[in-house]
Amino acid sequence: MITEYADMRLERDDGQVMMLWGHAGKGWFLPAGCLEGFGDHENDIEAFDNVLTDGATIVSRRMPELDRTVSQAIWTGPNPDSARAAALSFLNPRHDFRAHVTYRGRTRWCEGVLTGVKCPMERLDAPPKLTFTLLCLDPHMRDERRHDEAFGDARPMFGFPYVSHMPSTRWAVGAPASVRVYDGKNTVFNAGDLPTYYKIRCEFSGEVKNPVFTKDGKKLGVADVFLPGDVLEVDFEASPPKVEKNGANAIKTCTRDSSFTGMVMQVGENVFDYSCDDPENRRGYMRVVVSWHDKYLGI
């Protein structure tokens, strides 16, 4: 069947899933135009009148929370009575939800809480209809794919492995070569519409003291000793940010010159670096991965 509109995979925080389809016959059908707010965004602007000149000056701008509604989805499969009961049970306001929407070949998702559900009592020979609204405290849509950039990993050149054609005192002509992501500085590209936050995960394969992570000149240092098998995680997506060593809170070990503000990943290129005490001999024991979702204004 050809999708006439959009497909939605609605995930509940306990792992249960409900599907809504862009074509009739498979279950809950999304008629064209029934998704409201998934391609919208608002901009709250506050301005004060100028004292000495005409007009006003903007003092703040922000994107507020957003309601996203599925309106009048129609059941087109068998057993409408059990389907209606299952939908009402699934749409439990005590849970949080993620809505993954596929439209024109793109899949992006948002998360929110239920503010209302309507499944009216129609004639018994009429198919059930379903309407529900998610309040998205973060109004942005996220890319389905989570990016994981491992610093120090080899990256192929010209169809891996690339074969060198230049004479060298270190490598013979014809030796396989690759370009490394880590060359002292690591450039990560945010391809979304908006700045986004990220997570840093560092796995240690040897003893490392006082690791430091730097992003565009702002740094976060951890005054501690890490042994083989230890894992350090820094979560800037959380509010407030989290720093954990082997799953335990380690934010008290952060150095006083650490920055938790301004560590946002801007649109375009972002430069990261990491180091530690005796970096020439110890930095190789650190495997650092930065992960994030690109953020978009719509689908």
First-residue to last-residue Cα separation: 22 Å
* Broad CATH class of the largest domain: Mainly Beta
Kindly report the average pLDDT value.
87
Order of helices and strands: EEEEEEEHEEEEEEEEEEEEEEEEEEEHEE
Radius of gyration: 25 Å
* CATH domain topology of the largest domain: Jelly Rolls
In order across it, which strands form the biggest sheet? 1-2-3-7-10-9-8
* Total domain units: 2
Number of helices: 2
How would you portray this structure in words?
It is a single chain. The chain has 299 residues and is mainly beta. 5% of the residues lie in helices and 44% in strands. It contains two helices and 28 strands. It has helices spanning 80-90, 279-282; strands at residues 7-12, 17-21, 28-29, 35-36, 44-49, 56-62, 66-75, 96-103, 106-118, 129-136, 141-143, 147-150, 154-155, 162-163, 176-177, 179-180, 186-190, 199-204, 208-209, 212-215, 218-221, 225-226, 231-235, 242-245, 248-249, 268-275, 286-292, 295-296. The protein has a seven-stranded mixed β-barrel with strand order 1-2-3-7-10-9-8. Strands 12-27-18-23-24-25 form a six-stranded antiparallel β-sheet, with no helix packed on it. It has a four-stranded antiparallel β-sheet with strand order 17-26-20-21, with no helix packed on it. A hairpin with a 6-residue loop joins strand 23 (231-235) and strand 24. The protein is globular. Mean pLDDT is 87; it is low at 154-183.
